[in-house]
Amino acid sequence: MTDSDVKQQPPQHQSKQPGVETRMHPEPESGMEGYVGSGKMEGEVALVTGGDSGIGRAVAIAFAKEGADVAIVYLDEHGDAERTKDDVEATGRSCLLLAGDIGDANFCRQAVAKTLERFSRLDVLVNNAAEQHPQSDIADISVEQLERTFRSNVYSMFFMVQAALPHLQAGARIVNTTSVTAYRGSPGLLDYSATKGAIVAFTRSLSLALVEKGIRVNAVAPGPIWTPLIPASFDAEHVSRFGAKTPMQRAGQPNEVAPSYVFLATQDSSYISGQVLHPNGGEIINT
After folding, report:
1. What is the side-by-side strand order in the sheet with 45-49?
2. Per annotation, catalytic residue among 74, 155, 183, 192
3. What are the strands, taking DSSP E only, across the chain?
4. What is the distance between the terminal CA atoms of the chain, rounded to a whole angstrom?
5. What is the dihedral of CA 197, 202, 205, 206, to 10 degrees?
6. Reduced DSSP (H G I as helix, E B as strand, rest coil) percent helix, strand, coil of the chain, to 5
7. Is the pLDDT of residue 6 over 60?
8. Percent of the chain beyond pLDDT 70?
9. What is the DSSP string of 203-252?
10. How far apart, in whole angstroms, are the C-alpha atoms of residue 45 and residue 33?
């Protein structure tokens, strides 16, 4: 994307999270149309939470283009999930759709079990799904919201890793999605940014816990990326300004983030664990 392409998105809002990609205008660039794989994940299997749309969709398609079969976990956005499945299968790979709530430990166990039943192995786990609920005052964050945000964003990663770990062999990789808000904070997203900070600590600690097993654990901390979560979280005016404060003065696209996940999910990053990549439009982050 060149400087001539820099622009903000038109005002828009969706009333329900996690949001639907096909209702966005313009739609996110998540189809990885220009991405050419080179067999870096040939014969492997990846499970991607939040894989129906946005960053997760782009990651799933990129993995497929690298030769992996993909299981996609999503909440209830069936239309988006089916479209991603079609795009994965268009690469010649297989795609398994798993609808449910990752905040439920039992569902996470079922998702892993169904992935193994279908593909007989699991090589890469991407913990990507999340939710956010803006509040300008900490007093307005209810107990219910706080628990829901932490359950979806943090508990789910514990649940998925607990379910997957007995089936991960040496050489497996785990990639978690954190956020730029973990590093610079966000006054209107106190609970969300707190979960993203927890994910950084979780990633670092889990990497040390699993290094002797030969399993690498890393994370990606995207900046403002144009995904369904944005119009489903903010009002139309906020959406129209989304990403403008980055040094690049625009929101990023999912297809600009997915290569970071490919790097961390392949042998290109064989000497890297416990680290975080920062596709964030040029913001300098103190890691």
Report:
1. 95-99, 69-74, 45-49, 124-127, 173-177, 216-220, 276-277
2. 192
3. 45-49, 69-74, 95-99, 124-127, 173-177, 216-220, 276-277
4. 27
5. -150
6. 45, 10, 45
7. no
8. 97
9. HHHHHHHHGGGT-EEEEE---SB-STHHHHHS-HHHHHHTTTTSTTSS-B
10. 21
35 is catalytic: no
| Token couple for 244 | 């403008």
- Compute the average pLDDT of residues 180-191: 96
In angstroms, the CA 182 to CA 195 distance is: 8
User: Which residue in the block uniquely carries the two structure tokens 């103190």?
Assistant: 286
DSSP 8-class letter at 86: H
Q: Which tokens belong to 169?
A: 């062999």
Q: Are strands 69-74 and 45-49 parallel, antiparallel or unpaired?
A: parallel
Contacting residues for 123 by C-beta, under 8 A, at least 6 apart: 41, 44, 45, 46, 68, 168, 169, 171, 172, 173
Place of tokens 């209830």: 76
The model's pTM = 0.92
Ramachandran angles phi, psi of 47, nearest 5°? -115, 125
Instruction: Tell me: pLDDT of 2 over 50.
Output: no
d(CA 27, CA 19) in angstroms, rounded, equals 12
**What's the mean per-residue pLDDT of the chain?**
93
81, β-bridge pairs: none
Nearest to 150 by CA among 217, 202, 96: 202
